[in-house]
Amino acid sequence: MIGAPRSRCTMRSDIRDVESCGLIIPEDVIIGDVTHPASKVGCSNASPYVPNPPQPASEDDAAIVARIAARRAPRPLQALDLTLLHSPPVADGWNSFLGAVRTKTSLDDRAREIAICRVAVCNGAWYEWGHHAPLARAAGVSEEGMGVVGRDALLVEGGEDGDREERGRKEAERAGLGEREWAVLSEREVVEVTATVAAYNCVSRFLVALDVGEKNGTGPEAGH
User: Fold this and answer.
1) Which uninterrupted H or E stretch holds 140?
2) Residue from 137, 136, 119 nearest 128 by CA
3) Is 31 helix (H, G, I), strand (E, B) or coil?
4) Are strands 29-31 and 10-11 parallel, antiparallel or unpaired?
5) Among 24, 19, 26, 25, which residue's Cα sits nearest to residue 45?
6) CA distance 143 to 140
7) Cβ neighbour number for residue 88 with a 10 Å cutoff
8) Hey, which of 81, 88, 96, 159 would disulfide with 61, CB 3.0 to 4.6 Å?
9) For the segment 209-223, what is each residue's pLDDT rounded down to a tens digit?
């Protein structure tokens, strides 16, 4: 529920990875399936979202909220926006960067949404999948194609790796996901599809780390 407090923060990572970076793990943070209580900074009862509508503390912050709302229109602010707005400057930069990746590249909608959905699957970011799978379908990806994109592993089971890869490629082609259907050809397209994958890897890592939208541990059928 937007604006509702949580009793604890959640992160999908490994304790050793976090501690090896020199980060302090807050009290009652769950990492994987382990509660790590030793803390110097607590996050118990913290809200993952700012109030909706947001309550900017300055004119600059109000302008940031307006820019984000303008990009989302006619939709309302999303759970991701309300999380990012805990730090208005970060939310502003995020809005500008992702706005360019989503709406200002030369990639066709189909190629872009396939790439984003595949990143969501690889990172278990089901909030991201719930928003972008309908866009992929609207761009012409068939249900069979979405079934391929939504797999944990793209290689089909059984046989040698080379054979599994070839059978997986043929299955993807039957589902309308072959190289001919969504190949990127120009240098600009190569840069743009790489930037799209990188950007949405960042998005999905953020979504999963903070469980934005409360979709962690669900699956592609969870919706949004």
Assistant:
1) none
2) 119
3) strand
4) parallel
5) 26
6) 9
7) 21
8) 88
9) 999 999 898 887 765
